[in-house]
Amino acid sequence: MKSNLHLIFKHPRPFPGFSHRIQRRIHTGPPVLPCGLCIDRDKPLANTAPPYTQHVVISTGRDDWASRIESEDGPNLAKGLKELLGRNGEFHHPDHKVLVTNSSFPSSIGARGNDETWTSAYLFPRFQYIPRITNTQDGHRAFAQELLRPASTASPSPPTETSTYYTPQPVTAPVVLICGHGSRDRRCGVYGPILRDHFEAHLPLTMPPSHPARRNPHIALISHIGGHAFAGNVILYIPLGYIPPRTDQGHDGEGQTNKLAGSGIWYGRVEPESVVDIVRETIVGGRILERLFRGGIDRNGMPLRL
Predict the structure, then answer these.
(1) Bigger pLDDT: 113 or 225?
(2) Does residue 192 surpass a pLDDT of 50?
(3) Is residue 239 within 8 Å of 127, Cβ to Cβ?
(4) How many Cβ atoms from other residues are within 10 Å of residue 6's Cβ?
(5) Neighbours of 87 (CB within 10 A)
(6) In what order do the strands lie in the sheet with 234-237?
(7) Most CB atoms within 10 A, among 23, 95, 138, 228?
(8) What angle do CA 255, 265, 277 make, to 5 degrees?
(9) Which run of H or E residues covers position 264?
(10) CB 77 within 8 A of CB 137
(11) How distant is the alpha carbon of residue 243 from its chain centre?
């Protein structure tokens, strides 16, 4: 399925209001990769994003994980979901692939201790945050049954707090996910933290001082999503009905509903100097940068392709 998205190509320009204090703090220049590893700059990026209909982003509060996240010891939501939703899983559906990744987002439970019987997660393109999920085998099954199956087969009854999780909360600010899975591939391990610093420097400048996302932007490292050779790999989730707030920067798109609202946009070969363009053109302006575009997902779980 092809999208009707307006695709553009632009060269980075200086971002008004950029703090020189921040500029000194973050990495400048091209990332230095380990010997023997390089970025594939020849293969076309278009349509290299894997097909999926939902994305579960698990909050772990950590920046790196075992090479295969399902192999980690202890209560493991990623393992439970992959078993339930995988090819031989109880809730497997050939036309409803659920992408499961860990993230560096802190769990809501983490602030109250290290109780591993609970965890938290984001769901896209539902744009929901689940603050408390029972991190047990029964809890994993109930969570998958109630929220991760196709609409035609999902449980008609509403979830109960005691059996699975607290009421989902809406995600109303843009979410930036950057592959930083260094134990899986060092290219992502190098690029991920550098790109996170740049997004943390630039994204808040699109928000007025009073906006919660200016103080706590939704930016995180995530585990493997495929395409190591295309590092840095970035996924942008733009919430439904998102209207970039008006700021004194006066960027094109401020105060207007983002045309990509409800979508997930995958970019590859993202360099630090690309971040300015991504923030201004895609997150604020609602336009896709064709030179970086790997694919994506629309609000209905359908693929976005060139």
Answers:
(1) 225
(2) yes
(3) yes
(4) 12
(5) 6
(6) 169-170, 128-134, 118-124, 54-59, 98-103, 218-222, 175-179, 234-237, 264-267, 293-297, 303-304
(7) 228
(8) 60
(9) strand 264-267
(10) no
(11) 19
Q: What are phi and psi of 30, to 5 degrees?
A: -70, 140
For 36-61, the DSSP string reads: T-----SS--TT-SPP-SEEEEEE-S
Could you tell me how many helices (H) and strands (E) the chain has, helices first?
6, 13
- Residue with token string 């009854």: 157
Q: With contact defined as beta carbons under 8 Å apart, do 190 and 31 qualify?
A: yes
Which residues lie closer than 8 Å to 94 by C-beta, 6 or more apart? none
Q: Is residue 82 a contact partner of residue 70, using CB atoms and an 8 Å limit?
A: yes
Give the mean pLDDT of 263-273: 97
Tens digits of residue pLDDT in 151-172: 655 554 444 444 455 689 999 9
Please report the pLDDT score of residue 153 as a whole number.
Answer: 57
Indicate the angle between helix axes 137-147 and 77-85, nearest 10 degrees. 50
For 170, the token pair is 């809406």
Q: Which two tokens stand for residue 271?
A: 């360099």
State the alpha helices, DSSP H only, in the chain. Answer: 20-25, 77-85, 137-147, 186-202, 212-215, 275-277
pLDDT for 163 = 46
Q: How far apart are alpha carbons 8 and 23 in whole angstroms?
A: 27
Q: What is the pTM of this model?
A: 0.86
Q: Out of 93-102, 104-113, 179-188, pick the least confident.
A: 104-113
Alpha-carbon distance 215 to 303, whole Å? Answer: 32
Q: Which three-class secondary structure state does DSSP give residue 132?
A: strand
Strand 118-124, strand 54-59: pairing: antiparallel
CB atoms within 10 A of CB 102: 29
Dump pLDDT digits (tens) for 118-155: 899 999 999 999 998 989 999 999 999 989 988 655 55
- pLDDT at position 6, please? 43
